[in-house]
Amino acid sequence: MAKGVMRRKPDTLVEALTGSLGEHQAFLARTMLDRIDACTATENRLSDHIDQQMAPFHRRVELLVTIHGVSTRAAEVIFAEIGADITRFPTGRGPGLVGGVCPGNRESVGK
């Protein structure tokens, strides 16, 4: 399964893949995995909280998801940026500007 230059170095590959996991390395690996598990648990708690907070606006999120390329999480972010009251935007351009999805035209020829 070696690729490229490593195909010609099987001894180096065997040496790299052969080894032992000592007590210290096992401790460090377990510590890192515990940290990943803690971050995953925090992410799940945050996602549950976001879902609870977004529940009253479920239909609006569903409508935003119908836009090509907008996922549920992206729709929630868009909704969080522009808010529930879109009457403050007199044109359709306003929410795009606030949400950061309108491209800028900041290019000048030769400058």
Notes on the structure:
- The chain is mainly alpha-helical and 111 residues long.
- It has a domain at 44-99.
- It is 59% helix and 0% strand.
- It has five helices and no strands.
Question: What general outline do the C-alpha atoms trace?
Answer: flat
Question: What summary fits the major beta sheet?
Answer: none
Query: What radius of gyration results from the CA coordinates?
Result: 25 Å
Structural class: mainly alpha
Distance between the termini: 51 Å
Element-level helix/strand string: HHHHH
Q: How many helices does DSSP assign?
A: 5
Estimate the mean pLDDT confidence: 83
Q: How many extended strands?
A: 0
Q: What percent of residues adopt helix (DSSP H or I)? A: 55-70%
Show unreliable segments.
none
Fraction of residues in β-strands: under 5%
